[in-house]
Specification:
single chain; 314 residues; alpha/beta; Rossmann fold; four-stranded parallel sheet; 12 strands; 40% helix; elongated
């Protein structure tokens, strides 16, 4: 074989091999992966809109106390650079004077966030931050427990902690199932009154808190008072006379911190000393913060409720 022909065949063979390799192993699209294998960009269909992150967020601002608890619980605490003035838990959260009730977009942007997490869109914050090209994940107050699980899952995806989020959800479900299983069966369901403040605002069974109490088979005295009144949104204002007449077996106080209400102050109210819950020592003092949030500490709230229910049944 002539030398030139050998060279030509060699070149053609090399070209074909290179082309074949190019077809079988195309250049991969660049992506960023976290240690647990989650890749970016990431898109989630949030409760109030789609959110896309091109890279793992390293400067998160949370203007929601519940979201703050979720972020730290899934291991994203090191990525949080600022939280609002109501984010009291956990202690290590970088609390600031930022307000979640009256947020200021410029103040938030001053922390150079690559993700902002909020619960409500006060002051048209979402639009303002979007103009600054700052991604926003909005997690409104949960209506049911599944809303809580969804928000934890999506925050895990957005922050690069999907496995930790899944583990947290599974642990919460298991803990709640165990608490529910420990409640005795009722011949007649105990009744309860949940107090939001000393002016007797309460919750119905159609609220997030109402669902939690319903897990234990309790009967809510506020339901009957709320019938036919769609304007209260599940949060009716009762009267002292109504509560006394309803004679609940259990009273849960979610105004111990804000309003210094205790079993003693309840017993001192005119006519309340005759209520079964007061007479039998079944007035339960809750932590306001835990009772008003829908994050991981829901399990802590349910533990308190379960203990009270079991004690009342003894």
């Amino acid at each position: 074989m002539r030398p030139k022909r050998v060279l030509l065949i060699s070149l053609l063979t090399t070209t074909v091999l290179l082309a074949a390799c190019g077809e079988e192993d195309p250049t991969p699209t660049p992506s960023q992966s976290t240690e647990d294998g989650s890749a970016y960009p990431v898109t989630v269909e949030g409760p109030l809109g789609e959110v896309t992150l091109e890279a793992r967020p390293e400067r998160i601002v949370s203007l929601s106390p519940t979201a703050t608890e979720m972020l730290f619980a899934i291991g994203a605490g090191d990525q949080v650079v600022a939280v609002d003035d109501q984010s009291t838990y956990p202690e290590e959260a970088p609390r600031t004077d930022l307000s979640g009730f009256t947020p200021n977009a410029e103040a938030v942007a001053g922390y150079e966030p690559d993700l902002v997490v909020i619960s409500g869109d006060a002051n048209n914050l979402v639009a303002s931050l979007e103009q600054l090209q700052i991604p926003v994940y909005q997690a409104p107050a949960a209506m049911v427990l599944e809303d809580t699980y969804l928000q934890i899952e999506q925050l895990g995806e957005l922050t690069g902690h999907p496995e930790e989020a899944t583990d947290l959800i599974e642990q919460m479900r298991a803990d709640i199932d165990e608490l529910v299983a420990g409640i005795p069966e009722w011949d007649e369901a105990p009744t309860y009154y949940h107090e939001l403040d000393p002016t007797f605002y309460s919750v119905t069974s159609n609220t997030f808190l109402g669902e939690l109490y319903g897990l234990f088979g309790l009967e809510n005295i506020a339901d009957a008072a709320s019938e036919g009144d769609a304007d209260n949104g599940g949060y009716p204002q009762l009267s002292a006379e109504y509560i006394i007449e309803a004679d609940p077996d259990l009273i849960f106080l979610a105004d111990t911190v804000c309003c210094q209400q205790t079993a003693e102050t309840v017993a001192a109210r005119p006519g309340w000393d005759g209520i079964s819950a007061v007479q039998n020592g079944n007035v339960v003092e809750l932590n306001d913060d835990i009772a008003s949030r829908w994050g991981p500490r829901v399990v802590d709230l349910l533990e308190v409720i379960a203990d009270a229910v079991i004690a009342a049944a003894a």
